[in-house]
Write the structure tokens for this entry.
Amino acid sequence: MLKRVIVVFIVFLSIVRADTDLKKAVFDLTTSDLTTFESRVIKGVAFNKAHYESKFQELDIIVVIHGGAYKFFVKDLTKTKYKNDKKILSASKEIEQRLTSLIKTYNVKFQVCGVGLKKNEIDEENIYNFVEVIPSAMVGLIDAQSSGYAYIPVD
């Protein structure tokens, strides 16, 4: 009987411990600056994931997209107001590959503001398939923070 109690207690402690090994962050992505986007999101996610993995901890990341950041997640920029942005046009294929890598390697979730898509006249079909359209950025941020995600602004 005592052995069972000890085993149950150890299992309980393992479950409690495992729960504390999960860190969560929501990136509030509003920047339109390519350099900021690359350093804070693409490189930043990889750096932070590696940091927590080195401590045998897990980091769950959600990126909520709105403001000036839509252009990084558009399939065909020529169908948007970004069609004359030469810098983003030349980088778009590489950005898509790097974002896909973040999803495959680090299981990052991307969510885009549906209100902002309409406001910016971007069709949902013109957003990368790996991006979830949510009702609004506020809803995504509120939901994530209510679920214990640390707020990280990227503007």
The first strand starts at residue 22 and ends at 29.
